[in-house]
Amino acid sequence: MNTKIVIGLIILLPVLAHLVYAGATSTFASYYITVDQFVARSANTPVRVGGQIVPGSIRWDNASRTMRFQLAGDYAKIDVMYRGAVPDSFRDGFTAILEGARSADGGFIANTLLIKCPHQYLPAG
């Protein structure tokens, strides 16, 4: 083999291995904290929070194009404000995963809203 090719492979293989490892660990680290954990922490850093959408809490403000709702954990609830595209499956009682940060009043300002898929799909009817 050519010496340049061997040197290139020696340099390239560890870099590729590192990229694969970094990609895999960042994918597995994409977890979220619960509403209860969010309420208990004092840090005001960006975070991903997951909980159940409180039935009857969804409110639309057409003037400011924002949606407000509550997200519940086992013991606590937080008020959420979100402005952006809303998934078609956004419904009372579903599990939502939000990315954002704590607001000045202790609620949550979400910049990303995801709906966790239900474990079971049932036919309409």
In terms of topology, how is this protein built?
Layout: H1 3-28, E1 33-34, H2 35-40, E2 47-53, E3 59-61, E4 66-72, E5 77-82, E6 95-102, E7 108-115
Short description:
By secondary structure, the protein is of the alpha+beta class. It folds into two domains: 1-30; 33-115, Nucleic acid-binding proteins (OB fold (Dihydrolipoamide Acetyltransferase, E2P), Beta Barrel), CATH 2.40.50.
Task: Please describe what this structure looks like.
This protein is α+β, with helices and mostly antiparallel strands and 125 residues long. The chain folds into two domains: 1-30; 33-115, Nucleic acid-binding proteins (OB fold (Dihydrolipoamide Acetyltransferase, E2P), Beta Barrel), CATH 2.40.50. 26% of the residues lie in helices and 33% in strands. It contains two helices and seven strands. It has a five-stranded mixed β-barrel. α2 (35-40) links the parallel β1 (33-34) and β2. The chain is elongated, with a radius of gyration of 21 Å. The chain starts with a helix and ends in a 10-residue tail after the last strand. Mean pLDDT is 82; it is low at 25-29.
